[in-house]
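Supplementary Note 2. Why include the ligand at all?

Several targets in our set were suspected to adopt different conformations when bound, so apo predictions alone were not considered sufficient. For every target with a known small-molecule partner we therefore ran a joint prediction. The input for magnesium ion is given below.
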Amino acid sequence: MVNVIIFGPPGSGKGTQSEKLIEKYNFDHISTGDILRAEIKAETDLGKKASQFINNGELVPDNIIIEMLEKKLNTLNNSKGVIFDGFPRTTDQAAALKEMLKKHNEKIDIMLNLEVENQELIDRLLKRGETSGRSDDNLETIKKRISVYESQTSPVIDFYKNEGCYRGIKGVGSIDDIFSRISEAIDKCQN
Ligand code: UDP
Ligand code: MG
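The joint prediction is reproduced in token form.
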């Protein structure tokens, strides 16, 4: 099994690149953001709790996210690998993921950090906001999400540098060029 974290600030292309990875490698995909949006749409208790945080550009608390992730992880079987998209977002979540995987004799094989400058992120997210219908794709919330990323999420980079599986990926250029960089990194770590 190959376990991949696709990491990066909001608008860095995690979802787009995950779709291409699924197609090429048949990995399972866990996007905590997508799960949360589905819960909101279904108006569940979890969705109701999460929507306040999401609309403000804040993180949904660790305990909620970790429990949700563990449930999702337990539904997978005979997986070729998992792409974790948008998770972990804090070092506590990263530590919890490590423990969860350890129980299944698994670990994170590679953490891919999509590197994109802030102005490019803002431009991309505003453009996405024209059609996404997402409550958090507006300028005010985008700025908040980027600052939350910098203060709470970027420390996760050092966590995986310490684990020895960190890879920085230039996240600008054509979607296919970025995908080539990602594929190359994954193929190398599989051997
Ligand atoms: N979110 C969260 N924890 C997660 C995933 C998502 O708190 O593990 C919330 C957070 O408010 C975030 C929003 O959901 O700003 C959207 O997350 P998603 O990963 O979909 O957005 P992206 O960063 O990819 O634009
Ligand atoms: Mg996303």
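The mean pLDDT is 97. The longest strand covers residues 2-7. Comparable summaries for the other entries are listed in the accompanying table.
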